[in-house]
Amino acid sequence: MAMASNNDENERREQAEKALQRAEELFAAGNVRSAHLQAGRAKRLCPSLPGVASAAAAYEVHAAARPGKGGNNWRAVLGMRYGDAATLDTIKDQFQRLSLLLLHHPDDDNNNNAGRRAAVEGAVALLRRACEDALSAVAAGSSMEDDDDGTSRRPHAAAAPHNYKMPPPAMQLHVPREAIVIYCPSCKSEFAGKVGRLEQQVGMKCARCTEWLSPPWQKKPQAKKEPPAGPGRPAVFQCPAKCPECGEQYASMVCVGQWCLRCKACTKAAMVDVQGPDQATATIKKSRT
């Protein structure tokens, strides 16, 4: 019974891999709608397949942004239903959800696949533009943000050809972004992030982990330094002595003098006579009877 279940699971995984490969080929050929359908099929067959979630999200964004779908359709790109109120919070939530899905993890399988990586990068650019359009529409007034069919009230372009091409990089961003170093308190690491008007309003994902960061951007905290020794201030250092009971070195910070220290390993208390950073004598403290 277990063997049959494993065989079914392996078969579904193989079918999902083929569907994902087919989606990549269709996307490269400009057939975004079919690529979206194939990626969705791969995700249903094997949701745990590496890269399938972000690839399916990327093709979905491209499909929603197709020029033939009626102009600047930011609602469809952000996955917002027509008629729902478009507020700053809902736009931020959708942008954050889709960004984390597209940029799932730095070790995602899509990073090792040039075709899928290009699709994800293009989807991120389209998502940024849709979010900027949405924020501009909200700032201008919700009553003027779109028509009854959910499309933006801007002059529509002529019907697009069947084959879809990603917009050139020059058209993907509204305003230039500034490269700055940002610190993530979650993974305690720094990364070079590009920050523009959009990031200042809705935040951005950490490049090292899945944490969502919001302005004001943090800087790496400075390491705490022990105050230098000076007149009236003795030098502080780690106790050089070892516990006479278990041989574990003490972790306490001390200065020259006598100290009653308790070993963290065996919990025995000892009197330690500290003569300097490299010399100390420890004696087990005798209990009173």
Automatic annotation (TrEMBL):
It comes from the Eukaryota. Residues 140-169 are annotated as: Disordered. PANTHER family: BNAC03G44070D PROTEIN, OS10G0188200 PROTEIN. This is J domain-containing protein.
